[in-house]
Design goal:
The complex is a heterodimer.
Chain A: E1 4-10, E2 13-19, H1 25-32, E3 51-54, E4 57-60, E5 73-75, H2 88-95, H3 105-118, H4 124-130, H5 142-158
Parallel strand pairs in A: 1-5
Antiparallel strand pairs in A: 1-2, 3-4, 3-5
Chain B: E1 2-4, H1 9-18, E2 23-26, H2 32-37, E3 45-48, E4 58-61, E5 64-68, H3 73-77, H4 80-85, H5 87-94, H6 99-102, H7 107-113, H8 120-127, E6 130-135, E7 138-143, E8 148-150, E9 153-154, E10 161-167, E11 174-181, E12 192-200, E13 206-214, E14 221-222, H9 224-230, H10 237-250, H11 261-282
Parallel strand pairs in B: 1-3, 2-3
Antiparallel strand pairs in B: 4-5, 5-10, 6-7, 6-10, 8-9, 11-12, 12-13, 13-14
The chains are: A alpha+beta, B alpha+beta.
Bound molecules: flavin-adenine dinucleotide (FAD) and FE2/S2 (inorganic) cluster (2 copies).
Chain lengths: 159, 287
């Protein structure tokens, strides 16, 4: 079977790749493009470790085919920091110790950024519901929620 | 495996009918890719319907709303006019999975996956929704109630797929609601689901109602006997008790790890009552 040629945009850069029809976007990111920030926790949409944005919409990269990305704008964790300058969410995750093993962290950061893009002033409840599809086995979630709300506050004050 | 991404309904029908092997329609992929991953589905080709423009639209049609088969749950939730007319349908769709799942999952995919516990199906049935199906013989419209024929089975014939779901025009003083019981608050499969859609007259008497239950039979069911308990009443406590009994009587669930038969039968009645109260309030009825 011949490979599918895909032209897309990832973190603002034009990207081309060849993939098989059954390759998920997560396979393409991790195995073809070396963008290993997105993690595979489950491969079935349950854990959110593979969270990316497609045209600004939060999705699981494990539940999308690489071929589907053609012509769309993909956003991954690799696009979050600007060079050495961490995104405020990343900075707050460090300050609040909102990660331990770190497997869930890229997905949660991408999901939290998507929340703040939609709603710069979320309540704690809104934040918990928005992140309900991101599982963390280590932190117990409270520190994550505090870090997100604190980052949101700083970002509102800065803007 | 082959990946097909037609840009018109005609091309999609032609491709779908000309495939020799197993060809699966791909909408949001939140069921299909999970099934492929776990080895339950091994299609020879996948036909992605998301590049067909007309399937991506939510549009006014014949007094109601036509929701394209490629519209995601998140897009439905952001459509204020659709939410105003059919809050119960949209809340049912928005209960599907997480934010990430909402970014992809479609109402038509929920219907075609044909799980007895699919959340949006009872809400569509209560709303009187109609599925538009394209196929080699042209277009046909069929009530959503008649689409699922058993767990994982639909009435779609080879080469056919759903292009849109139509929600009827909402009469004045009408409201709908969907509730499900799950052991958690998010990310779980309905143990029982119930949708109620009703219309009141100026005096607050119910003139029309439709009640549907999910996860208590091989497919979601329309319960006429339950609707009859509401029509002609002001949806008062007596009517609500009768509604609960009618729903419990209609529930024919299985027992599994998520709920016993007795529990599901009881909860069907409880949810029906609560959904009816919300629907009545949304219709502008006195609480
Ligand atoms: C983590 C997670 C949580 C979930 N939670 C819920 C939940 O709470 N409630 C719930 O009801 N479901 C839930 N689901 C199941 C799933 O998300 C829904 O059923 C969803 O609506 C499926 O829509 P889709 O567009 O992704 O379908 P797809 O996966 O694209 O398709 C599903 C099936 O329908 C067929 N199909 C799709 N569109 C059409 C069409 N237009 N015409 C003909 N056939 C078609 C496909 O070939 C496939 O067999 C969950 C899934 C995951 C992964
Ligand atoms: S790896 Fe995609 S949701 Fe778990
Ligand atoms: S930090 Fe280990 S899973 Fe979240």
């Amino acid at each position: 079977m011949s490979k599918i040629h895909v032209t897309t945009t990832i973190n603002g850069d034009p990207v081309e790749y060849l993939c098989d029809a059954e390759d998920t976007l997560l396979d393409v990111l991790r195995d073809h493009l070396g963008l290993t920030g997105s993690k595979e926790g489950c491969g079935t949409g349950d854990c959110g470790a593979c969270s990316v944005t497609v045209d600004g919409r939060l999705v699981c990269a494990c539940l999308m085919l690489g071929a589907e990305a053609a012509g769309h704008e993909i956003g991954t964790i690799e696009g979050m920091a600007k060079g050495d300058q961490l995104h405020p969410l990343q900075q707050k995750f460090i300050e609040h110790a909102a990660l331990q093993c770190g497997i869930c962290t890229p997905g949660i950061l991408v999901a939290a950024k998507s929340l703040l893009d939609h709603n710069p002033d979320p309540s704690e409840e809104e934040t918990r519901y928005w992140l309900a599809g991101n599982l963390c086995r280590c932190t117990g979630y409270d520190k994550i929620i505090r870090a997100v709300l604190d980052a949101a506050k700083d970002m509102r004050e800065a803007s | 495996m082959q990946y097909l991404s037609p840009t018109t309904v005609d091309d999609a029908v032609r491709l779908l009918s000309s495939q020799t092997g197993d060809c699966k329609v791909l909408a949001g992929g939140t069921d299909l890719l999970v099934r492929m991953r776990s080895g339950f589905a091994e299609p020879d080709s996948i036909l992605d319907i998301k590049r067909i423009d007309e399937l991506r639209r939510i549009a006014h049609d014949d007094g109601g709303w036509r929701v394209g088969a490629a519209v995601s749950g998140a897009e439905m939730g952001e459509h204020a006019d659709l939410v105003a007319d059919w809050p119960g349908v949209v809340e049912a769709v928005n209960l599907i999975g997480s934010t990430q799942i909402q970014g992809r999952a479609t109402m038509a995919g929920n219907l075609c996956n044909a799980s007895p516990a699919a959340d949006s199906v009872p809400a569509m049935i209560a709303a009187g929704a109609v599925a538009r199906i394209a196929g080699p013989d042209g277009i046909r419209d069929i009530a959503v109630t008649d689409v699922p024929t058993g767990p994982g089975k639909t009435c779609l014939k080879p080469g056919e797929f759903i292009t849109s779901i139509w929600l009827p025009s909402r009469p004045d003083r009408s409201g709908d609601a969907y509730l499900r019981f799950i052991p958690r608050t998010e990310m779980d499969i309905a143990v029982v689901g119930c949708a109620v859609a009703l219309t009141l007259d100026a005096g607050g008497t119910c003139t029309a109602a439709r009640v549907s239950l999910g996860a208590v039979a091989p497919t979601a069911i329309l319960v006429d006997a339950a609707a009859d308990t509401l029509i002609g009443t002001t949806v008062d406590d007596t009517a609500l008790d009768a509604l609960a009994r009618a729903c419990s009587d209609a529930a024919k669930p299985i027992a599994d790890k998520r709920g016993t038969v007795e529990f599901r039968v009881h909860v069907a009645g409880v949810l029906a009552k609560r959904a009816a109260i919300i629907a009545k309030t949304r219709a502008g009825g006195a609480p």
